[in-house]
Every structure is written in structure tokens, then in C-alpha cells.
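Lab notebook page, bench 4
Experiment: in silico fold of construct C2
Operator: M.H.
Input chain length: 197 residues
Purpose: comparison with the prior construct
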Amino acid sequence: MLRVGEAHHRLRGWEPSDPRKIEDWFRRALETHGEVLRRLCRYGKAWRDFQWPSCKLSSLAIMACMVDILDKLNLELPNSRDDLAILHVCEHLADRLNQPIPNPVMAGNDAVALDRDWKPEERSAFVAKAKELYQRLIDALRGTDDPAQVLKHLQAALGDRVTSDVAVIRVLQHEATVKSFSKVTIAPPVVRRSTSG
């Protein structure tokens, strides 16, 4: 039976929750970051499920970390380039997991912080595995142009939810990767006058 105002956590049991506020918070985050955010959260959950049959790293904690990282990066990620999005986010995931994770809809209430019952060794394990994930993604997405190898590395990082169909992999030239980001204006450097001789 569903209890109003509570959610069931697979390890902690029933705890305070407001599903409507969480839904509204995530909808606003999607409006800011686009559908790529939803896919990033799914990748994060797949990684978690592949690494640990059960653990205290909740789906909401993963979602909160992904949103927080994207907010801080302030990048406009191309919606069609999940490879770039996951690389950018996972580069910062270990650092984010190593910090307190407040509940995004109950901020300021440490009693409902999403990492409130993590033991130091559990946090260390999450951080270590996040670093490993980033390295595996580097190997997959920058270390080879062979689609089969890309998928092999991705499966090693995210598990068997990753397809084995090499047709889903498109190898792009470096120029296409650079052009996939929006232009940024940078101030020209100051060049001082010099004399020769």
C-alpha cells in the first residue's frame, strides 16, 4: 500500500517524500537541460545497477548529482550527442559524489539528505567506481574508432543494458565533434609592443 507523503527505498524502507515536488523539480531541470538529462540519469542508474546489486546510492541521488553537475557546467549540450554529454558529466561525477547531496525538494533539511546514511567506506566505493566509470568512458569514446570496441568498453562500464548492435555507433571526425558545440566568444589576448634586436 502506498503511503501518502512517503516513498519506499529498497534498503531504508519508508521515508518522507513528496513525489509531486520531485516531479516538478525534474520537469524544470528538463526544461533547462533538455531530454539529454533524462538519458544521463538512465545511464547513471544503469551504471549503479551494474556495479551493485543493492546499495544506498538512490535513483534520486543520481538524478540530483546529474542536475547539479549540468547546472554548474552551464554547457549547452547537443541533444544528439549522448557520448559528449556522458563524458562531460562523468568527468565530475566522482567529485560530486564526494560532497553532501541534499534532497533537491527539501533543501536545508539534513534529516532527508540523500546521502545521510552513507558510511565513509560506501562513499569511497561510489567515488572510486565513478572514477573508474569515467576512465572506461574515455577508453570507449576516445580510445578507439572501432564500433565493436566502443560497445565492449561501454558494456564494461554500464552493463548488458548497452546494446551489442554496432549500427548504433557513428564514428565522427574530430571536426564534427568540434562543430557540435555552440560558438563561444572569447576576448582577444593583449599583445604588447616589442622591439627587435
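Observations: The chain has one domain: 6-179. The CA atoms of residues 83 and 141 lie 7 Å apart.
Next step: discuss at group meeting.
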